[in-house]
Amino acid sequence: MFAVLKNLGWFFKQEKKRYLVGLFLLIICGVIELLPPLLLGNAIDDIVTSTITWASLTRYLLLILGIVAVVYAATYVWMHRLFGGANLVERLLRTRYMNHLLGMLPPFFERNRTGDLMAKATNDLRSVAATAGFGMLVLTDSSVFLFTVLFAMGFLVSWKLTLAAILPMPIIAIGMVIYGRAIHKRYTLAQDAFGVMNDQVLESVAGVRVVRAYVQERADQKRFQDITDDVYRKNLAVAKVDALFEPTINFSIGLSYVIGLSYGVYLVFQNEITLGNLVAFNMYLGMMIWPMFAIGELINIMQRGGASLDRVNETLKTPPDVTDPEQPETPAVPNSIVFSNVTFRYPSSSADNLKDISFTLNKGQTLGVVGRTGSGKSTLLKQLLHEYPTGSGEIRFDGVPIEQLTLDHLYSWIGYVPQEQILFSKTVRENIQFGKKDASDALIMEAIATAAFDQDLSTLSDGLDTLVGEKGVALSGGQKQRVSLARAFISDPEILILDDALSAVDARTEARIIDNIRTKRAGKTTLISTHRLSAVQHADWIIVLEEGRIVEQGRHEELLAMNGWYREQYDRQQLENKLTSEEVS
């Protein structure tokens, strides 16, 4: 049960002063709160013996008021310390969790659902934070404060009466063990179900246009209803066990009151304790109600926090699929890129996705990668990003194997525009500045002109300050591609990778962008994968892929002379362009 506290030991050690002060004041408050029942019992005995005076009554009242004031001030401090610690550990864990996610590569996100990752970042971390705040409170109250009250009852009133009154406590202990195990198991299942629900919501919101286009609203509602019903059932299973805590504790406390009152009256008649002692004892017994409940809350919150921390740690302990070398090499500029017999297979694939790929690309050259859909174009380009563990063969940058480069150093050379453009829910300006922080408007406009987006900019309501919406929903496909291109151009990378990044623009705009790339990126390396051969005609070297193999390679003219797939595709596209031009005219 207390494994969660052990796993948070690093935080308690880091915030040792905060928790020592908070717990010390919490214990002091508990001890001081024992004084009013004692004073009240003494006052009652003075009344029974007719020795009470106005002076003694005033003294009792002033002492009680003083105790209340001290407890009030101390309570403010310990609550600030303990619950402030809960907020702090949540912030630290959330930062660590986010940093870990940012360091993960595509294989990790292929294995983990986005909704579940979000559930861990919200519900689970809040449960862990509650353990560090409210959990420490109930731990102290259910142990130190409980034994302090028992000590006061035994030493200040009667050990006989105290031992008799606590006879029902084993019922609580047995119940807590049974309920605690059930809570841990059921709460883990409930949190897993919440992650599935999160994932379904994300998919439904992101794909709402497709859902409506295929008139699948009712089916999607039914699917979501089934998932929410499952979440409800699993949370209800948690609530059913949770609901057993209070009745069990109330039953035990009720027995304690019956035993305490019955046996206490007997001791009063036997003159072993006074009436004031019996009143004080019953007040102490009332003070034990919260520590008893705290035992139940302790089991509950520790099991929930433990289950949540286990889920979060499961993610945090997942190592990156690609790690930096212990002794990295750091060439200043990638003067050459060499693929030597590279064979690669995705972890989820049953066959090689690239086979014996070999080519050399020198600084300043442009490589075109073409082929049928699914031939391996994107897979080849992604090898330069080192997102997956390398297969057989070698990839070298300026003679250095890619495994000997840190990912940060490698990515500092690369500008990448993927097939599926990702724009953030910010302005056009901020999305482009993502490629170069604090870039001036002049640089932004230059990147926009290179991406042939300058004419479209005037059609946007607020120009550079136009919000693009979530994932760029306010822009067309071609506009999103060109904003993504501008983001890559503004960083002026040594290696620019365009993975079918011109598919949503027309032929004239494509020709303008290609001309701009040839002009602006003279002396720097560019790799372009595309279905339209017009985008790579100018390339220094073109490779044609088929089922992960290079079946043709050479310059544009050389490939035409081979009369293979490249020539066939080129003639077909030229005919399509001619027919389109005739229709327009």
From TrEMBL:
Q: Which PROSITE patterns match?
A: ABC_TM1F, ABC_TRANSPORTER_1, ABC_TRANSPORTER_2
Q: How does it sit in the membrane?
A: Multi-pass membrane protein
Q: What is this protein called?
A: ATP-binding cassette domain-containing protein
InterPro entries hit by this protein: AAA+_ATPase, ABC1_TM_dom, ABC1_TM_sf, ABC_transporter-like_ATP-bd, ABC_transporter-like_CS, P-loop_NTPase, Type_1_exporter
User: Where would you find the membrane-spanning parts of this chain?
Assistant: 20-40, 60-79, 128-155, 161-179, 249-269, 281-301
Q: Which UniProt keywords apply?
A: ATP-binding, Membrane, Nucleotide-binding, Transmembrane, Transmembrane helix
A Pfam family that this protein carries is ABC_membrane
Q: Which residues form the ABC transmembrane type-1 domain?
A: 20-304
Source taxon at top rank: Bacteria
Q: Which coarse location class describes where this protein primarily resides?
A: membrane
| Single GO MF annotation | ATP binding
Residue span(s) of domain ABC transporter: 337-572
Where found? Cell membrane
Give the organism the record lists: Paenibacillus campinasensis
Signal peptide positions (record) = none
